[in-house]
Design brief:
This protein folds into two domains: 172 residues, Acetylglutamate kinase-like (Carbamate kinase); 145 residues, VC0802-like. It contains eleven helices and 18 strands. The chain is 34% helix and 26% strand. The chain is of the alpha/beta class. A hairpin with an 8-residue loop joins β4 and β5. The strands form four sheets. Strands 3-6-2-1-9-11-12-10 form an eight-stranded mixed β-sheet, sandwiched between helices. A six-stranded antiparallel β-sheet has the order 14-15-13-16-18-17, sandwiched between helices. A two-stranded antiparallel ribbon has the order 4-5. The chain binds aspartic acid (ASP) and magnesium ion.
Length: 405
C-alpha cells in the first residue's frame, strides 16, 4: 500500500461546508486503499486576521508570541477536518506540527525544518488511521513553536512526503493547476500537464502561488507533486523530474510578483567594502535582497539600487538608513509600487533571442523597464505595478503560450 500526502489550502477549508467536502474527498481516497497523511492550512483568511489582531496589541509583536498565535490557525482546521472524518466513520487523528515530529531551527516566522521524526505518524498509519497534520509549523529543540513563513504548509506537506517516502504529494487548492500565466489576468492561459522542478521553482519564486521551499524539497528528495483543485475534479499539473525536457515552446510560463520595493542609495563613495558593509547587515536581519544594480562611477561616487520584498521594506530601511549615513552616501530613496514580471523555461538556456523578444513585447505595450535580471532559465523585468496585467498579457501573446506544446 502506498502512502499519499495530501495538502489542502485555506480556501478549500474556508467554512464548515468546505471542510466537510474536504473530509469526503479524503475519505474517498482512503477507501481506494492507500495510507493517507493530510496537511492543512488555516481556514480562509485566518492567518491574516490573526496578524491583524496582533498588530492591534503592539506595533511590533514579539516573534515568539506571534508564531504561537499563528500556529493556532492550522490547529483549528486540523481538528475540524479530523472531526468531520470521524463523523463519516473514518478513523482519523489530528497532530500539531510538534506532535508530528517537525523540528525546526529557531528563526521565528521563517523557520527551517532541521529534522522530521516520523515515528508518531507511522505509528498512527499502522493503526489504520488517517493522520491530519497542522501545516506551517514546527517546534525547536527548546519546545518553542515556530512557523515556516507565509504559505509554509506546502513545505510541511512536501517535507512529510519525503520523510515517509510517500508515492506522491498532492496539493489541493482553488485553481486547477499551474498555468502559463495567472488566468485572472490572461483568459487564454493554459494549464500545464507537467512542469519540471527547476521551472516550477522559478515560477513559484516569481509569482505563481506556491511556497518555493516546497519545490526545492521536492527536487532534492524527488517527490512528485501534483497541484490540483479541491473544488472540481481534474488532472491538475504534475511537478516532477524530467518533465517536457524538449518542449517546443520554450517559454513555459509568465509569472508576476507584486511584492516588490526598491531602495536606492545615492552618491555612494566608490571604494572597496561598501557593498559588503551594506548587504551583510541586511542578510543578518533575514532580509533577502534581490536585484542589485550599481551604476558606473562618476566622480568617485555611484548609485546603488536593490529590491526587497515590499513587506520587508520598512525593516530594510531601518537597517540601511544609519549605514547610508555612516558610509557618507547622499541619502536613500525608496519606491514601493513596483512589480516583477518574468518569463521562465528550461529551453531558454543556450537559445538566444528570448531577452530581446521580451523587451520588444514590453516596449510595444508601452511599458517601461526599470531593472532587469536573469538566471539560466528566467528573464525578469522590474516594472510599475499598475502595468502588471498589460505586461503579462503582452508576454503571453508574444511567446504564444496559448498554443499547445
Ligand atoms: N496559514 C498560513 C498562511 O496563510 C500558511 C499556509 O497557508 O500555508 O500563510
Ligand atoms: Mg493560508
Amino acid at each position: 500500500m502506498a502512502i499519499i500526502v495530501q495538502k489542502y489550502g485555506g480556501s478549500s477549508l474556508a467554512d464548515a461546508e468546505r471542510i466537510k467536502h474536504v473530509a469526503r474527498r479524503i475519505g474517498a481516497c482512503r477507501e481506494r486503499g492507500d495510507d493517507i497523511v493530510v496537511v492543512v492550512s488555516a481556514m480562509g483568511d485566518t492567518t491574516d486576521e490573526l496578524i491583524d489582531l496582533a498588530h492591534r496589541m503592539s506595533g511590533s509583536p514579539d516573534p515568539r508570541e506571534m508564531d504561537i498565535l499563528l500556529s493556532t490557525g492550522e490547529l483549528v482546521s486540523c481538528t475540524l477536518v479530523t472531526m468531520a472524518l470521524r463523523a463519516l466513520g473514518h478513523d482519523a487523528i489530528s497532530l500539531s506540527g510538534a506532535q508530528a515530529g517537525i523540528r525546526t531551527d529557531g528563526s521565528h516566522s521563517r523557520a527551517r525544518i532541521v529534522e522530521l521524526d516520523t515515528q508518531r505518524v507511522r505509528g498512527e498509519l499502522e493503526q489504520g488511521r488517517i493522520v491530519i497534520i497542522a501545516g506551517f509549523q514546527g517546534v525547536t529543540g527548546e519546545m518553542d513553536v515556530t512557523t515556516l513563513g507565509r504559505g509554509g504548509s506546502d513545505t510541511t506537506a512536501v517535507a512529510l512526503a519525503a520523510a515517509v517516502q510517500a508515492e506522491r504529494c498532492e496539493i489541493y487548492t482553488d485553481v486547477e493547476g499551474i498555468y502559463t500565466a495567472d488566468p485572472r489576468l490572461v483568459p487564454q492561459a493554459r494549464r500545464l500537464d507537467e512542469v519540471g522542478y527547476e521551472e516550477m521553482l522559478e515560477l513559484a519564486s516569481y509569482g505563481a502561488k506556491m511556497h518555493p521551499r516546497a519545490i526545492e524539497l521536492g527536487a532534492a528528495y524527488d517527490v512528485p507533486i501534483l497541484v490540483a483543485s479541491s473544488f472540481v475534479e481534474g488532472p491538475g499539473t504534475l511537478i516532477h523530474k524530467g518533465a517536457n525536457m524538449e518542449a517546443r515552446n520554450r517559454v513555459r510560463g509568465v509569472a508576476a510578483d507584486r511584492n516588490v520595493a526598491k531602495i536606492t542609495l545615492a552618491g555612494v563613495p566608490d571604494r572597496p567594502g561598501i557593498a559588503a558593509a551594506l548587504f551583510e547587515p541586511l542578510a543578518q536581519e533575514g532580509i533577502s535582497v534581490d536585484t542589485i544594480v550599481q551604476n558606473a562611477s562618476l566622480e568617485r561616487t555611484t548609485d546603488l539600487t536593490f529590491t526587497v520584498a515590499r513587506t520587508d521594506l520598512k525593516r530594510a530601511v531601518e537597517v540601511v538608513e544609519p549605514l547610508s549615513r555612516s558610509i557618507g552616501s547622499q541619502g536613500i530613496v525608496t519606491a514601493e509600487r513596483l512589480a516583477k514580471v518574468s518569463v521562465v523555461g528550461t529551453g531558454m538556456q543556450n537559445a538566444p533571442g528570448y531577452a530581446a523578444s521580451m523587451f520588444k513585447a514590453l516596449y510595444e505595450a508601452g511599458i517601461n523597464i526599470e531593472m532587469i535580471t536573469t538566471s539560466e532559465i528566467r528573464i525578469t523585468c522590474l516594472i510599475d505595478e499598475e502595468q502588471v496585467p498589460n505586461a503579462v498579457q503582452a508576454l503571453h501573446a508574444a511567446f504564444r503560450l496559448e498554443e499547445e506544446e
